[in-house]
Write the structure tokens for this entry.
Amino acid sequence: MEKILIIGANGQLGTELSAALQKKYGQEAVIGSDIRKPQEENSIFELLDVLDGEALLSSIKKHKITQIYHLAAILSAKGEENPKQTWNINMNGLLNVLEIAQQEKLNKIYYPSSIAVFGTSTPSPAPQYTSMNPSTIYGISKRAGEQWCEYYFNKYNVDVRSLRYPGLISYKTLPGGGTTDYAVDIFYKAVEATKFSCFLEENTRLPMMYMPDAVRATLELMEAEKDKLSTHEGYNLNAFDCTPKELYEEIKKHIPTLEIEYKIDKLRQSIADSWSDTVDDSVARKDWNWQHQYDMESTTKDMLLHLKNKLTLQK
Ligand code: NAD
């Protein structure tokens, strides 16, 4: 029987992945952990800092863990506020996980990577194997992390799997300080009937994905047969790409009163400009049959529906 530890379970991805894993494996089989307590404690939870290797090991022994989903990280824009701390958390957290996975012979490890591994030298669409010169400490740590994963797979046979997510759009938990966060905030402002102030220029194109696709991709990769996987670095993963202007115009079809202004944040604009505007995910499609379900139109429709319900219930 699998026992799963999720590290960073209270974040934008963790809250939704936890629910999906509980549905698949049962509530008792999934242990959430984070440095912050969850808002609702409706599952098994451990307050845990991934940098504390001893506490991590004791938690793994206590719960007889067989798989780890290691999501804890400092994201792109927030990471630039304190590069050394970002490197420490993103890198040494992963090394603790990989080392314990090897020692304790865990079955599988999941490590999320990002389109932040790409840089200005990467062609568009970004190929699976390509030139990468990440411009942020977040991107540098994710690229190094991918390579550590491949290293542990080759040298110690640790079955670690990884996806390079695009910007994730979701309504359950707010994003934690990335460069694509505008694509979540715009939906809140639309539903709250407030003018939206966009920190990126109107024609900045970036790859995006709706959370249900991201969660399904993660579960499908983790269930794929090991010998079908041609890489244990991050798989490129794509659904759609859009600019702030295109997303605004799509939302306006549903909420015609939405207004937008552009107040450019230099840091996040320069990060966005360094990333690929679209990604070639044909290797994921070939190796484990990846297919996205949500494009910009269906993401917009579903986001607005759920967000309206959520914000009405909160009133
Ligand atoms: P998030 O910031 O919303 O959540 C990260 C969680 O990690 C937070 O709950 C935080 O409290 C926790 N955490 C931070 N430091 C910790 C530590 N030392 N020990 C334990 N927990 C700690 O991030 P997210 O959006 O949920 O992202 C999850 C993963 O997916 C990250 O690795 C991120 O790089 C990757 N990713 C996210 C996106 C996106 O658009 N959200 C895109 C690409 C990749």
Observations:
- The first strand starts at residue 4 and ends at 7.
- The longest helix spans residues 83-103.
